[in-house]
Amino acid sequence: MKIIIKNGHIIDPSQGIDGVGDILIEDGKIKEISTQHSALSTSSSAHRTIDAIGLYVLPGLIDMHTHLRDPGFEYKETIKTGTKAAVKGGFTTVCCMPNTYPVNDNASVTEFIIRKAAQEGHCTVLPIGAITKGQKGEELAEIGTMRNEGCIAFSDDGRPVMNSLMMRRALEYSKAFNVPIISHCEDLTLSEDGVMNEGLLSVTLGLKGIPSEAEEIMVYRDLSLSKLTGGRLHIAHVSTEGSVKLIRDAKKRGVNVTAETCPHYFSITEDAVTGYDTNAKVNPPLRTERDIKAIKEGLQDGTIDVIATDHAPHHMDEKLQEFDKSPSGISGLETALGLSLRLVEGGILTMGQLIEKMALNPARILGIKRGTLQTDTNADVVLLDMNREFTVEVDRFLSKGKNTPFRGWILKGMPVITISKGRIYEWQ
Amino acid sequence: MLNRKDLLGIKELSKDEINLILDTAAGFKDVLGRDIKKVPTLRGKTAVNLFFEPSTRTRTSFELAAKRLSTDVINFSVPTSSVVKGESLIDTALTVQALGADFIIIRHSSAGVPHLLAKKLRASVINAGDGTNEHPTQALLDAFTIREKKGRIEGLEIAIVGDIIHSRVAKSNIYCLTKLGARVRLIGPPTLIPEEIRGTGVEVFHDMEAGLKDADVVIMLRIQMERQGKGFFPSTEEYSKNWGLTAERFSLAKDDAIVMHPGPMNRGIEITSEIADGPRSVILEQVTNGLAVRMAVMYLLAGVKR
Amino acid sequence: MRGRFFYGVKMPKELMNKKDIDRALTRIAHEIIEKNKGIERLGLVGIQRGGVHLARRLASKIKDIEKKDIPVGLLDIGFYRDDLNIRKEQPVIRKTEVPFEVTDLKIILVDDVLFTGRSIRAALDALIDLGRPAAIQLAVLIDRGHRELPIKADYVGKNIPTALSETVEVHLEEEGLEDRVILEKVDTER
Ligand SMILES: [Zn+2]
Known about the structure:
The complex is a heterotrimer.
Chain A: E1 2-12, E2 17-26, E3 29-35, E4 48-51, E5 56-59, E6 61-66, H1 79-88, E7 91-96, H2 107-120, E8 124-129, H3 143-149, E9 153-155, H4 164-173, E10 181-183, H5 188-191, E11 196-197, H6 200-205, E12 209-210, H7 212-229, E13 233-235, H8 241-252, E14 257-261, H9 263-267, H10 289-300, E15 306-307, H11 316-319, H12 336-345, H13 351-366, E16 381-391, E17 410-420, E18 423-426
Parallel strand pairs in A: 1-4, 1-5, 6-7, 7-8, 8-9, 9-10, 10-13, 11-12, 13-14, 14-15
Antiparallel strand pairs in A: 1-2, 2-3, 5-16, 16-17, 17-18
Helix pairs in contact in A: 2-3, 4-7, 7-8, 8-10
Chain B: H1 15-32, E1 46-51, H2 56-68, E2 72-77, H3 81-84, H4 89-98, E3 103-108, H5 113-120, E4 124-130, H6 136-150, E5 157-161, H7 168-179, E6 183-187, E7 203-205, H8 208-212, E8 217-220, H9 236-243, H10 247-250, E9 258-260, H11 273-276, H12 283-301
Parallel strand pairs in B: 1-2, 1-3, 3-4, 5-6, 5-8, 6-7, 8-9
Chain C: E1 13-16, H1 18-35, E2 42-47, H2 50-66, E3 72-75, E4 106-114, H3 118-130, E5 135-143, E6 155-159, E7 166-171, E8 180-185
Parallel strand pairs in C: 2-3, 2-4, 4-5, 5-6
Antiparallel strand pairs in C: 1-8, 7-8
Helix pairs in contact in C: 1-2
The complex binds zinc ion.
Zinc ion binds next to loops of chain A.
């Protein structure tokens, strides 16, 4: 099967390509890529020719922080629905967090996820294994065995590894398998049962606050432990100005660290919680304008390497509870690209830099040959129409999770075609 | 006019709306002083006390207020029994509405529950205390009492003493009294007064004597014993020594200062009996005024606006 | 400009002027004294707001005649209205202040306009909740007809037949206006 994508604006930071050209796909692989200076050698015999005039042609995006909820919480999301939502959002690879039921803390769960994803997944699913058994922070999980089964990173996400010695061991031990440890930075003793950012708003809403320091103390601890051990540390969902500064400083000192943030941390502030909207309840919590500014600077100067979704779907009934009882999380796969493109519109990032944050850098951090349009790689391709606007309507979400604070937002830039796992998805 | 379906908090009210409620309450207070303490105003209406947290005082006050207005009252206590059975909050509230409730008076340990339910219900929702957010009718009755005793609220120096961060009474009082033009001072240990609260336009004192100086009104808050275990203060003895209201300390306030307490009091801890039962205590009048204010709120919310 | 009165806006019609009102009240004062054979055990209660001013005026006229004070009370009927469920906005509650024991007194209720009778029904309930008067009589400045309840005034300043589409307004000096009674046609296309 041959597919030709013609005359699109190709952006592939991995090869330094930013210009109009054609791509030939054969048997699910990128066969040939050409820019205006060199025409494709075999142009006539394609089964399908896609006219991409006026469209961006991008490597499929990689989300290195997704909660697919499968196994165990299929009422929130399944591998099938989650990957379909991913493909609609422009992602062709998602890395699923291990806080399922049972927890992905052993090779049999990893195997289950990979097998199910192979059968039902609309995009590639790469599991992230738990650092500790049951994510309890007490005993190291079988990182090596899970690595062999297909886990590409390790994290207790949803919870921090509170015990510093355990975190030290994880960073040390993981070196043998060259896998990153993804840290959900939260000092639970300080955040206690907080439900939103701590500040005047939390006081006036009568909601228990989580100070920025609850994140920053752990960021500092983990940076220190990474320096001590040389282990590969990846900081998940950076939400505060202080964290950006700590990571920037650590990178200058040569600490082996990378970091991600999520669209909601640079798009909205804690104000979204006003009126007790549980759709704006997320952990870490939405912060302030000042933090947004710092995160944008961090994205701009490379302190923050990755934009991930932290896609955390929940059932509607769960979000219809008391604010402090309702679970944290935002369903993010279908809004992430649209929200992130606002950074390009706002001059924070170039289109090329955005693709680095959403495809190339995740691939590099995870050590996978993806996020690129190089020949002989998987044909994971997204065609993006920057002239298409869409309104965020949860009824049209393919994800089971309708929990988003961006309901009603008008976003510019929509994938019109996603090519994933050899299939062509066309979106209206 | 009070053109709203619900009373969720003082935050949402304008100064004019607060004054309208207080003026209307004055009319109801007259009624309470008569032999026949009941008016047919809201005859045929039904009010439901939906209390997810026990509170005999507030519940009784709303119950009596409703009865004085000739409204039928049902007490629907949810002592976690339904919750244990797994019935959701919304389902419980919809059930109560299906009983024909025109007013649903809600007390809940989580902030924002009245707001959540108000969006889902046709009935008027009255917040009778939600977590550490607000307790609007308490603030209104406090303002009513102050206005009655002092003739005004604007320009008064009003001290609120105690566990501010966990107190919905304090929060509602801050919004209410500052909107009415009083100067509000908060007094207590720094662990119980968040720094950010200065953003509401109040003054903060950690020293009781300095904070009480020349105050017109002193509002004492109940100290929760369980805060002690959480490190907010080391012991009730130490708390009492530093922030308890004694006669000696109260003498620092103006000569005609009044003292208030939302109840129930911890005598000998945040307030001595000498003060609580003294001539300048208006604590029992607060209870009576609570009825008048709650009648006024129900009356004003009963207009047709849907 | 002049022509506008011939089309569209209706010219308000004056039914009573200052003199007419004063004469009517003087007459009512005499009738009250006559009917009750003096003012022994008599009290005036004005219905907020217009009735209150009229009750005070009547009290002063009665004093001129009898050289004795007659007690005056103020009654707000807001709590007793029967239209609370259908009004957009709740009526403002004004003061009820009846500074004398109504039980066993003859009470003259005073109102400005008698129309459907519903306000008087509410006032009767309000009054009875204050005690058990020996008798209740009703004095009004205007009776405009259209009764919906079996209520009749004992003393009437002026009977004015009206259409339902018309309104009757009593302006009084106490409210900062010139004393007069006006009939106005309500614009039905409103
Ligand atoms: Zn996390």
